[in-house]
Amino acid sequence: MQALTKLIGLVTLSNNDSAKAFFMNDTLPRVLDAWENHINEIQTLSDKLVSLDE
Q: How many Cβ atoms sit within 10 Å of the Cβ of residue 23?
């Protein structure tokens, strides 16, 4: 999370519009998709652990 925040800060300061566009259109969506997948995996694992506890 910290690395992404710092990267966003650097991209914001950049004068290079193509770098900003690449980050927004290519890099950021991939990072967010990966986070979503990890969150889903954690939720699935949590649900399985709860069902084992019952």
A: 19
Copy the structure tokens of residue 8.
């966003």
Determine the pLDDT at residue 8. 84
Identify the pLDDT of residue 37.
Answer: 95
Other CB atoms within a 10 A radius of the CB of residue 45 amount to 10
Q: Spell out the domain ranges in the chain.
A: 2-53
Both structure tokens of 5: 């925040």
Task: Report pLDDT for 23.
Answer: 87
Could you tell me how far CA 2 lies from the centroid of its own chain? 11
